[in-house]
Structures are given as C-alpha cells and as structure tokens.
Amino acid sequence: MAEWRSSDLPPPGPILHGTGHFLPRDLSDQEVSRRILDVAHQFPRPRAWWCLFGLGGVLLGLYLLSVIVLFWNGVGVWGNNTPVNWAFDILNYIWWLGIGHAGTFISALLLLLERPWRNSLNRLAELMTLMAVVCAGLYPILHLGRPWLFYWTMPYPNSMGLWPQFKSPTAWDMFAVVTYLVVSALFLYLGALPDFAAARDRARRRGAQVAYGLLALGWRGSNRQWGHWRRAYRAIALLAVPLVFAVSSGYSFLMALGDQAGWHSTVFPPYFVAGAVFSGFALVSLIAIGLRWLLCIEALITPRHLDMLGRLLLATGWMTAYGYFADVFMAFYSGDRHEIDVTMARLAGPTAWSFWLAIGCNVGLLQALWWRRVRQSPRALAAVALAVLVGMWAERFMLLITPQTTDHLLSAWRGYTPSFWEISLFIGSFGVFIVPFSLFIRFVPMVSAFELKQVLHREREARHG
Amino acid sequence: MAQIFSRAADTWFRVAMLVIVGGLIGVFIVAMLLERSDYQTGRGWTVDQPVPFSHQHHAGALQIDCRYCHAGVERSARAGFPPTHTCMSCHSQLWTQAEMLAPVRRSLEEDRPLRWNRVIKLPDYVYFQHDVHVQSGVGCVSCHGQVDTMPLLHKAEPLSMSFCLECHRDPAPRLQPRETVADMAWHTDEDRRHLGERLMREYRVDPAGLTSCSVCHR
Which of B5, B13, B161 is the closest to A162 by Cβ? Predict the structure, then answer.
C-alpha cells in the first residue's frame, strides 16, 4: 500500500500499514479480549452509557404512547388520507428496512469476499440490522386497520379457508421482514457464539458465567466445533447475501405495483438496493464512530476502518445518484404527460424540498468524502453520515409521497401533512432501536474478538514464519 | 477454575429446548383445534329462549313449512322472525292456557314483540342474503341442518368462512330445485353434480364471481 506511505498525512502511526485488517501490529490477544470482553463487567464510560440508555427509554416511552393513541383511535390519528394513502408508515418502514441491509452486506458479503477488516465492524453492523428490521417490521403491523389480526398475513391453516393475499404488499412485507429477521438473527447469534464462550470464560460473577454459558451453547473450541461452525456460518452468509438484493428490490416492486405515476422506472430495484445499503453504511459509520469512543476501542476500529466506510458511502452514494438521474431521465424520455408532471412536482412542487434535500445531502455533501482527511476524521465522517441518513429519508419522502399528491385527476390533488402522532411514532421508533442496542453494547461483545485474534495470529505467523 | 455447569447441564438444556420448541408447536396445534372446536364456533350449543320453542315439534311432527314463520326468506336478506300474531294463528285456539306460552300471550296483550335470542350470529362485516341463496336452490338444511329434529334450536354447522367458501367454490353438488328448498327430507336419485349444473344454468348462478371478496364483504 504505497499509496498510504506517500500521503501528505501526519507521519503514519502504527495503524497506517498495509495489512488487510487495519489493526495495530502490536495488538495482543490479551488486549483484544480485555477491550471487548471485559466491557460486560467493567464498562469504560458508564455515565455516557446511562445517558444513551435514558434517552432511548424516553423515546421508547414516546413510541409506546404513540402506539396506544394509535390503537385507541385507529389510523385516523395519522395525517394520511386519500390521495396520499401511503405516508409516514410506509416511508419509515422502507427507511428502516433499507438501513438494515448494510449490516448484512458488511457481514455476509465481505465475509465471503474474505475482507479481514470487516471483523471490526460486522458485529455492530449485524446488531444494527437486527434492530433496524425490528423498527421497520413494527410499521406494517401498526398501519393495519385491525392490528391484532396481523397474523392473517401469514399462511397458516385457518378456518377462513383462505391463503393470505399474495398479490398484496402487506403479505410481501410479512415475508420480507420475517425472513430477514430470522436470517439476520441467526447470522448474528452464530457469529457471536465463540465470543459468548470467551465472555463466559472471562466472567467473574456466577450469574454472568451461567448467562454467557447458556448463550455459548457449550462451545469448547474443539476442532470439530470449529469445522461445523465455519460451514454453518458460511452457509447462512450465502443465504443472507441474496436477501439484501431480494428484499430491497422487493419493496421497490411494492411501489411499482401501485397505479401511480413516478413509481414505475425500471431502475427502481437496483436504485433501491443501492439506496438501502447507502443509508445503512451511514448508520454503521455513525454507530462505529460512537462506539469506538464509548467503549474506548479506537485501536480496534481505526481511522482506516472509517476510511473504508467513507469509501463505501461514496461508492453507494454515486450509485444512488445514478438512480436519481435515471429516474428523472426516464420520466422525460417516456414522453408521458402525467409522468413529466409528477417529475416536475418532485423538482419544483410544494414538496420539492424533499428532492433537493436528498440531492443536497446524498450527492452534494457526500462529495466531501473524496478527501481522505474527511473520511478519517470521526467528526467529519459522522456529520456526512448524519446528512446521508437525513438525505435518504428525504429521498423516500420524495419518491413515495410527492407522486401521490399529484394524482391522475387534477381534482384529486391534495397535499400531505403528517400529524403529531405520526411524527412522534417515528421519533419514538429510535427508542425501539436505542434501548435494546444500548443493552447489547453493555452485554454483547460489540466487536468480533475471536475473528480479530484470528487475523492477527495469521499475520504474526506470516511475519515470523 | 471450577466447572460452571454440572454434568447433567447438557441434558437439562436439551430437555428445555425440546419443551420450548414442543410447547410452541403444541400451542399452535391447540390454537388451531380450538379455532375449529364447537366451543369456538358455537355449533351444537342451544341458547335459552323466552319460550322453549321446539322446531322438532312444529317443523317435524306438525310439518309446518319453514316459510310459514320465516316469511321473508324468499324475498329479503333476512329470513325474518314471525310476529306474535303468527303464533296466535294457532295458539289462540290451541293450548290457550298453557303456562309455557304465557310470554306469547303477554306479548300479544302488551303489543310488544317477543325477544328471541339469536342462535346464528354472523359478524357485522358479512352481508348474508337469504333470498339469493333460496332463489338459487340452496336448501335450508344445507346451513341450518335438520332443524326438524331439534327440540331446542342450535347451530348445526360451524358457519365459518371456510364453510361458506366450500360451497361458493363449488356450488353445483349442493343445489336443489327451488321448490324443494324448505323440504327437510328432500332426496333425489339423480347425480347431484349433474342436477346442480343444470340448476345453475337455469337459475343463472355464475360461479366466477362467487369467491370475490365483495360478494360477502362490502
């Protein structure tokens, strides 16, 4: 990696060298264990953790309150109404579900491509995926008129003599969310199994020993167990990678199915895959930056990891930008009057702010990542990542809501304003994310310790052997 | 370091797993069975009535036609309950002092209808029409069972959605000539499907639309 040596950065520290794992060369196994596994009984920044947990608790409370209000009154408390029938519920569902995809991408695809630097990021990305899918998956249930009958979307031997309506996006949501949830939970748990065993062995209190011991499922690290483990882990990774593409293409079809101009460009499936992974990388970057400070693991998630995340953001960001271009181009190329009207409404209508916010954040601000200094600076990268999350949300708004406000009949044109309880539900959904996530931070090894040790060991062997 | 778990821990863990997984499957099976049980559907359960009216006696022994009391069944969505005057067309002459019939007489005196308790209650979102079924040759017996054998009326069929759909998906073998719908003992030697298909043509029953949602739900 001569490129690194010739940089104009301050003199390369121990982190700037040509390994595939981006870790300091002198990092010992003991240090890795201490940093990652001892967090459970000796948390480095307890006060900051309680602040995070408290914030999550407040937001979760807001969420529960919004859900109670919603269930008590029905979906009428929301602002969506004909012609804007798909509003915050679908918008935030797509936004959260998209975010989830990056976790699988980092973990599974980079595992199969044998990129050792993923080992610093995969655990937190998988946990993020799991929680994002939960946040997303609750939306389709909440937006039902009779939410207690949500299980009707599942095929089971019912006394109605009916299958779910397979033509309905509600059934697709169920299949997408449940499949994604099961695969990502399995992948996460299986990947953490050896770390749970290590945490069990390092635990000091009886309760922790038993809890981690149960989670470790009797892991002893024998050759046979490793052999099984490796096969199983790779098998699930192979299942998970196509899911990234299938699920996000799937919810682009959810829109393509609708009789709405502006939802039918053929670029939609790849456009949505890119956007999903893009937004997910943004949240992974934010969480990685936050965690390395919160857990004092700057040595494990190094500026080069952040640099790599920045590059991934830039690459997927440009793919998304191509989506914007192709989508607008197709509308004009089609020559269809209404398609053009809808696109003009996106560009200059009352909700044009969402289009320009998306362009500004996802295309404009993103370009800061061309500079290595920005990519490697935690604060700057966090700012860009936050902008991307906002931008991706604006993009979903622009894609989903603007076409509905400009319906086929001029007389049916109507704006959309989210109601208080709609907004509070969205803000509260961050509590659904933060509360379990902060508990994971406390009790689950947030970096894959055994995989780090494995790559460090390999490198030591290569150096000495 | 002392062992964390005892030697039997693995066995206990496996047993616990088995219990959890088996329990979940068990809960599912029980729920499925319960959903179809008479307890849930109300099939075979009699309902207390202000007057213990016996269909067995009236429709069975006395051979009174269903439509004598349920007069709206051929022309309206609801089969209808008889006004007290219908009861009195016989009971002003018969059993005039019977204690069992005191509420009927009181109803006539006070000009206030008897409050029968519903035996068959479909959900509000089901728009069932008696007339179209009768006109298409669905016998009373198909849904209500042999009421001429019931001393106190009870549901004879679960009347669940799958019960309705079973016939809506394939009505032919369940139809009978329009004139015979109220005949509890109707029987034919003709092939039912053959007959049914002929009747469907005659009564213009179009099976294509019968399973669309809006036929029953609006």
Answer: B161
Separation between Cα atoms, residue A97 and residue A107, nearest integer Å: 16
Between the CA of residue A302 and those of A1, A118, A133, B43, what are the distances in Å? 16, 12, 27, 69
Q: Confirm whether B126 is domain-assigned.
A: yes
Per the structure, the complete domain to which residue A227 belongs is given by 29-152+169-462
Please report whether residue B47 resides in a domain. Answer: no
SS3 A4: helix
Taking CA atoms, what residue in A is nearest to B6? A210
Instruction: Note whether B76 and B124 are same-domain residues.
Output: yes
| Pairwise CA distance, residues B126 & B128, whole Å | 6
Chain B residue numbers with beta carbons less than 8 Å from the beta carbon of A214 are 13
| Closest CB to B161 among A159, A214, A217 | A159
Residues of chain B with pLDDT under 70: 1
A220 and chain B: CB distance < 8 Å anywhere?
no
Q: Which domain holds residue B28?
A: 1-36
Q: What is the CATH classification number for the domain harbouring A44? A: 1.20.1630.10
Query: DSSP per residue over A140-152, as a string?
Result: HHHTSSSGGGGGG
Could you give the number of structural domains in chain B? 2
pLDDT tens column, A98-146: 998 888 888 888 888 888 888 889 899 999 999 999 999 999 999 998 9
**Bond preceding residue A269 cis, omega within 30 of 0:** no
Of A158, A161, A217, the CB nearest to B166: A161
Phi, psi of B151, deg, nearest 5: -60, -45
Q: Which of A159, A163, A219 to probe the B interface (max B CBs under 10 A)? A: A159
Over residues A193-198, the mean pLDDT reads 93
B158 lies in a domain? yes
**Residue contact A218–B10, C-beta within 8 A:** yes
Nearest one of A432, A451, A373, A360 to A123, comparing CA atoms: A451
A49-61 pLDDT, tens digit each: 999 999 999 999 9
What number is the ipTM of this complex? 0.77
First and final CA of chain B: distance in angstroms? 70
Supply the Cα-derived Rg of chain B in whole angstroms.
25
